[in-house]
Amino acid sequence: MPKSLRPVLVALFATLLVVSGVTSAGAGTPAAAPAASPPTVVPQPSPGACPTQATTPKRDLRAMWVASVANIDWPSKPGLTPKQQQDELTGWLDLAVKQRHNAVILQVRPTADAFWPSSYEPWSKYLTGTQGQDPGWDPLGYAVREAHRRNLELHAWFNPYRISMDTNVNALSPSHPARLHPDWVKAYGGKLYYNPGNPEARQYSVNAILDAVKKYDIDAVHFDDYFYPYPVAGQTFDDAAEYARYGNGMSLADWRRDNVTTFIREVRDGIRKYRPQAQLGVSPFAIWRNKATDPEGSDTTAGAQTYDDLYADTRKWVKDELLDYITPQVYWSRGFAAADYEKVTDWWARQVTGTRVHLYIGQATYKVAQNADPKWSEPQELSSHLDFNTRYPQVQGNIYFSAVQVKADRLGATSLLNEKWYSRPALTPASPWLDDEPAAPRTPVVAYARGGQVTWVATPGATSYAIYRVAGRPGSCDLADARNLVATVRDSQGAFQSWTDPAADGGTYVVTAVDRVGNESAGRVAG
Predict the structure, then answer these.
(1) Using alpha carbons only, how large is the chain's radius of gyration in Å?
(2) What's the rounded mean pLDDT across residues 203-232?
(3) Residue 86 to residue 253: CA distance in whole angstroms
(4) 184 within 8 A of 178, measured Cβ to Cβ
(5) Which residue of 107, 135, 227, 451 has the smallest Cβ count within 10 Å?
(6) In this predicted model, what pLDDT tens digit does every residue of 377-420 receive, in sequence order?
(7) pLDDT at 265 over 80
(8) 375 near 381, Cβ under 8 Å?
(9) On the CB side of 314, how many CA atoms lie within 13 Å of its CA?
(10) Contact 365/414 with Cβ under 8 angstroms?
């Protein structure tokens, strides 16, 4: 349907529904509805006005990382046919739905290459086995479409500076920017990197990332913990010449931190320009600084500190609200001596307090039954992290590394977690600052609910809809958490929307509209 016609038809159908009680039973087939009083509107409850259950949060980011570098998660190996790659990818998306996740973090630029037809960089070798070889399809475009069809957010995950997992420049495709601009490149720790201190290299990386932002309807740009490389004993990251030229009186460490912060700011500004409702998120190594190094740091004794070793001032990014969310990789157990999950999570909760930055926790599913720390041999360890998180309203979700580990479900740890914490769907946390019209979308007009089928008129501005099933007459408190939330569905772009309850075991249905940044309307009761 042409976009220009949809609002006209929606308005017309809505008027007909109210005046005549006529609705659609599905794909455009009129059906008579019994005469009834106008549908009831259920207001959203005021914050804190209703009792809620910690195990059924209404707003909760749930996701897993799907890593492409070295074929960790997807594709399972290079050289698969397009159909095989698509089937594997949809399998991960279907697993996310099964886990009642609402987002997927998909790596699309693992080593200065691309999982889309990029205007800047070659096709990734992790697709075909040969860098620069066209895989015959558009993985990122496909991923966005299929994720959204399942009402999953698609966060596109980029590595900022890594060029290759070895130092063989000649193995790069002949047209690779690193071969054309060798002055941009540094070898360190057995890998090749773009030098963050070279303004041309930095700007090129920014442009390569924004190429995807411009072309695809992604929900977020996502970076992990790799900025300047992790220190390697006995080796020096040789940027002395660039520092001498661009240091501008700063110390070497401050200059490096400024380079990374400038990169983050430039990406953020590009996102706001080209796709203003998309988010920027970072998942850093969780220790900004140890308390012994800086009294503002966490009560930890970790061997690495992002501020000093990776030159990523993640705390500043939160305080300056350069990010929309931060996901520290709190990959330790509760009580671990050097970096206690509880102490690290507490520290991050305090850092985001008073900011608009969402806090999600990176969870180490990969350590379950595979780590020297005996806590990770206990099936309940992962679930206990979410139990601890309930002490902090600042913690608004969790992301799990990585997809193959989530699927493996070692010790049944993921199943235990899902049974307790993910028994209901959840909406993603709202980011109203990304909306030029921060008000909630209009309340839907519901045609009817019969036999478990709920049908309503599409709502202008809605990206998706939340459907609640309530015993008896619904009230605001029935919408306060996810106890009554039975589904979230993507707007299908039709004038009528419809969803069928697979349980259909009675109750009253309420439908709300949710916009792109997570604002939710009042609920409309199905007549």
Answers:
(1) 24
(2) 98
(3) 44
(4) yes
(5) 451
(6) 999 999 999 999 999 999 999 999 999 999 999 999 999 999 99
(7) yes
(8) yes
(9) 32
(10) yes
Sign of the dihedral defined by the CA atoms of residues 243, 247, 249, 254, in that order: negative
* pLDDT for position 22: 38
Q: How many C-beta atoms lie closer than 10 Å to residue 207's C-beta?
A: 15
SS3 509: strand
Question: What CA dihedral angle connects 486, 491, 492 and 497, to 10 degrees?
Answer: 60
Closest to 474 measured CA to CA, from 512, 428, 422:
512
pTM as predicted: 0.94
Report pLDDT digits (tens) over 143-160. Answer: 999 999 999 999 999 999
* C-alpha distances out from residue 364 to 165, 197, 225, 326, 351, Å: 23, 32, 14, 16, 22
Report the alpha-carbon distance of residue 255 to residue 253 in Å, rounded: 5
Tell me the C-alpha to C-alpha distance, in Å, between residue 16 and each of 8, 10, 11, 39, 523. 12, 10, 9, 14, 20
Widest distance between CA atoms in the chain: 81
Q: What is the DSSP letter of 524?
A: E
SS3 state at 209 = helix
- Between CA 123 and CA 72 the distance in angstroms is 18
Tokens coding 175: 């047209």
Give the mean model confidence (pLDDT) for residues 79-101: 98
In degrees, to the nearest 5, what angle opens at C-alpha 55 toward C-alphas 497 and 506?
Answer: 45
- Is the four-CA dihedral 117, 118, 123, 127 of positive or negative sign? negative
Per the omega criterion (within 30 degrees of 0), is the bond before 173 cis? no
At residue 508, what are phi and psi to the nearest 5 degrees? -105, 135
Could you report the per-residue pLDDT of 324-380, keeping only the tens digit for each? 999 999 999 999 999 999 999 999 999 999 999 999 999 999 999 999 999 999 999
268 and 227 Cβ atoms separated by less than 8 Å: no
Which tokens go with 330?
A: 């709190």
Convert the pLDDT of each residue in 209-220 to its tens digit: 999 999 999 999
Which residue type does 173 have? S
CA distance 48 to 227: 40
**Which residues make Cβ contacts (< 8 Å) with residue 97, sequence separation at least 6?**
150, 152
SS3 322: coil
Distance CA 258, CA 283 (A): 19
Measuring CA to CA, which residue among 314, 467, 316, 364 is closest to residue 65? 364
* Buried-state track 257-275, b at ≥16 Cβ within 10 A, e below 16: bbbbbebbebbbebbeeeb
> Over the stretch 460-476, which tens digit does the pLDDT of each residue have?
999 999 999 999 899 99
